[in-house]
Amino acid sequence: MKYAVLDFETTGNQSSDEIIQVGLAIIEPDKTISQVYRSFVKPGIPIPPFITGLTGITEDDVKDAPELDEVMVEMVPLLNDVVLVGHNVAFDFNYLQSALDKTGYLPFTGRILDTMDFLKILFPSLTSYQLGQVAAEFEVEHDRPHQADSDALATALIFLKCLEECAQLPLLTLQRLSDLFAGEDSDLGWFFDAMVQEKEREAMPSEDGFVYYRQFALQAEDWLDIAAPRDSADRNPLADVSFEQFMEQVRERLRERLPQYEEREAQNMMLNEVMRAFEEDKHLLVEAGTGTGKSLGYLLPAIYHSVKNDEKVMVSTHTINLQEQLRERDVPLLTEVVPFPFRAAVFKGRQHYLCLRKFEHKMNRKDFATPKEEVMTAAQMVVWLTQTESGDDEELNLGNRGGDFWETVASESESCLGRSCPWFRKCFYHRAKHEAGVADVVITNHSKLFTDIQAGHQLLPGYERLVIDEAHHLEDVAGKHLGIHMKYFTVVHTLTRLFKDSKTGQLANLRSSLDASSAEKSSEWCAVIDDIYPTLVDVKESWDKLSELLFSLMPDRSDAAPGDPGQFVYRLLPTRKPKDWEILTALENQIYVGLGDVLRKGDRLLSEIREEQDDYAAESLLTDISGLFKDLAGERESLRFFMKLESEDTVYWMEANGNYRSRSLQMYAVPIDVSAQLKEFFFDRKKSVVMTSATLSVDKSFQYMIEQLGLTEAAEEDQLITSMLPSPFNYRDQALLVIPRDFPSVKGSVGDDHFINTLVQSLADSAVATKGRMLVLFTSYRMLRQVYDPLKELLSAQGITVIGQGMDSGSRTKLTRRFQGQNASVLLGTSSFWEGVDIPGEALTSLAIVRLPFQPPNHPLVEAKSERLQREKKNPFMKLSVPQAVIRFKQGFGRLVRSSQDRGIVIVYDTRILESYYGKYFLYSLPGPKMEHMPMNQMVPRISEWLNPEA
């Protein structure tokens, strides 16, 4: 096969736009690139400035270029008898067909392949499929992005990598791919078919490193073969070794491994504090700022304690991100520097693991809801099985619609066949559980800790010592898990997976398999299923109606612009139920009774079929249906709890979005105060709980956290150690905090014209002084939107890009990556950017905080907590709002200095920090930067002077 890799640069992406540059790389059948054809093309229309900005192609480049006719004369012979390849090939193909048509040639009728498809299928774990990112990942030279010849050559080299990868795949996987795309009549089907034929002609290697099972090729061996890290008969490697001696050995090995390794005072203090808490059976609150190296600060004592005493230590993080970071960065390093074998296992929530039984079932039935997208996801996963050892969805880049597919094949307890499943020995969830069982240290997340409590401690291996990282989130996660959170779609998904119509859904699948079976009772059973259908339809109608009525209770928000995320929030009070509430409870009752009827009939039906029939395919379907019934039963009880509105200790509220109305409805019922439950589940039961985070203290005191987390009694009984570690950075030299004291103030979440104009001008001036490299943190998405367009306009003339969360598409990680990739840009973010974003080094020089991050006082949970404090004769603002805002403010400040080389500026535009009596709590809680306030007109000169002291 001969391939032609094509790339055009054009004046835009409308049909009226014209080609300005052509790149064409020819790949010969022996997989060599024989030539790269390149040419500018003279367009009939001017090149827009943003295209020149993107491609670097100017009017001068094209003014003497050949016309399209001349270029096509040279290009057309190169396209003879080739397979056309491109990155997002549809774009280039459309321009090619129109160019052929304009210049009087016949259209191109050969086969067309897209490198995007190949990358998705063959490299399912790539974080980005953008050409520049992929080229960097594959170390392919791509020196002039967005120039056609450079793009075409880079795409050709990437395509060759894909062909190489494809040749490595086992025959069985290629056959699966060929089968998946066969019905599509697509060029991908043709390609994989050709690859299968090529592979069949090769001699089969006796050992190819894959495990073959039930017509799938896998990477993962049986998990029953995973042994404990040390043989139990051997002497304990720490028998006569003190923690100091152990640390000496580790440090020696760290120096060998990392020439730049230096001991840090704060990390040594942390190591000793954690060790002390473990040895004395006490709890510990330890605040460790950026740069302390806190992961090693708790992992090393955890490993030492666990191995020496032969008891597990549990480590919990708030985000999956941090769990991944520990798995990929910290644990491999420790494996090299700890002088004996140990095992640290990562264990996540069950829904993160693929259920191979469900996946096999879906593949064999080709049970795809949206065939085009789902065939692609299935293809990714077939290849991923030859690569993954953990079966964890975080490894997959599933794209937008992949999440729905994942839900149908994720592991879940309700539909698990356990030991009777033919996939049991290969099961990813049971592997993770087994690994956690034999590990010394188990790394999990806050969510899983609470799911484990709700499941009666059946999920995690037993533990007496627990380390909670990012502990400032513990209270929040506890509330979500110990309460109820239901979405409109939670119920709809379960209902439609059971029964969408008489042809789709698991009940319909069961009915058709009963129809085909010879069981004597099958017609009787089919009648029961037919009897269940109408009840499910009624339940769905009542649920739709109830959701609409609940949505209609939401007050109209006068200050919300359309499309504001989380636009509506409405609290329900047990003491003052909305009028006509009984109409809604009557609907809920219909749902309750209807579902009760379905569950009774359904459970009886399933147990009868199970008794009579004994075949795996049916068993697997019955298990899935019984799992869906259990989900419905849970949803029925949650809805009843919510609608009853009877607990005084619970805050009930609803949220919805103006665009999607009742379909976006979410219901919450959360305990107002979780401190008693945290005390009961953790601090009373466990010997030692270590809590750490960069932000636990307010105004140099831990009192707020001690009260929120239920540690008051432990503190009184001397069961609690608190420690505030010194910062490893010299903040006086590394950070300057500037407050423009004559800045206008603002009320509420919307800025008036004067405020917004002053803010935009000041941000623009500061961004020019710092050459972009600026992160601007907002507390309201509305204000971010008010600033985005005018700021973009002001800065585009200076060559500085503005990236806005929610304005530019992409997740937080994608936006952060774009910000780091461009040398002069300003990133505007709201809530999720205040923490967890790590942008070390030059990419971030200045941080602007527009408003102090107070929670909206009308948020139901804040409101309920404030009412409770008022009843206790305490000041809610000082006891709740200020400490919460200070912790958030410290998180935001922490984005700036991420290493001992970083230098930066923080601008706080909220003058309350100077004028109010509580402002000092914010300033005193920071780790000691240089602080200055000045009139606005002196700010930019001061910033420039501080950043360039020599100038």
TrEMBL record:
Q: Which CDD domains match?
A: DEDDh
Q: Per UniProt, where does ATP bind?
A: 288-295
Q: Which Pfam families match?
A: DEAD (PF00270), Helicase_C_2 (PF13307), RNase_T (PF00929)
Residues in domain Helicase C-terminal? 762-942
| Start and end residues of each Helicase ATP-binding domain | 253-526
| Catalysed reaction, written as an equation | ATP + H2O = ADP + phosphate + H(+)
Top enzyme class? hydrolase
Which cofactors go with this protein? [4Fe-4S] cluster
InterPro entries from the xrefs? ATP-dep_Helicase_C, DEAD/DEAH_box_helicase_dom, DinG, DinG/Rad3-like, DnaQ, Helic_SF1/SF2_ATP-bd_DinG/Rad3, Helicase_ATP-bd, Helicase_C-like
**Short motif (DEAH box): ranges:** 469-472
Q: Which Gene3D superfamilies match?
A: P-loop containing nucleotide triphosphate hydrolases, Ribonuclease H-like superfamily/Ribonuclease H
> Which E.C. number(s) belong to this protein?
3.1.-.-
Q: Which GO terms describe its biological process?
A: DNA replication
Say what the protein does: 3'-5' exonuclease.
Query: Known NCBIfam families for this protein?
Result: dinG_rel (TIGR01407), dnaq (TIGR00573), PRK08074.1 (NF005981)
Its name, as the record gives it, is 3'-5' exonuclease DinG
Tell me the organism: Paenibacillus mellifer
Question: Which gene codes for it?
Answer: dinG
